[in-house]
Task: structure prediction
Amino acid sequence: MKLVRTAMLAGLIAGVPLSAVAADYIENAKDYVDKADWKALTTVTVEMSEHHYTPEDLRFKAGKAYKVELKNVGEKDHYFTSPEFNRAVAWRKIMVNGQAEAKAPYFTAFEVLKKGGQLDLYFVPVKSGTYPVYCTIDDHREKGMEGQLVIE
Result:
């Protein structure tokens, strides 16, 4: 709750309407995470290489538990950036190569390091919509490293 109040205060100082700040991410994420059936989660693997995601487009069903494995099989570092999608899901956690985890209300982007880096995303989709995903490193997006994330 302190984080929400801090974000609202920052928004007021910056001239951002309170409604925009409050709607920034799923505030009751814990409710969605607690209700989800994590034993029946669906695992999706995304391989990142020069300069594309495989698969490029992913579809998710609202209310269902997911694990997305981001695997960098390329020779360069890559980002998986989708701020709007990341605010449309309830986050459980992210795990780094099965050795560390992080929890937060939402994330803006994920960088997966070259030659075998892996990041696992655990979440429950909440807000229906189609969201772009892209790599923000250099000209990777312009070279075709982008796709869509759809919540049905």
Summary: The longest strand covers residues 42-49. Residues 49 and 74 are 4 Å apart (CA to CA). The chain has one domain: 26-151. Residues 1-22 have pLDDT under 50 and may be disordered.
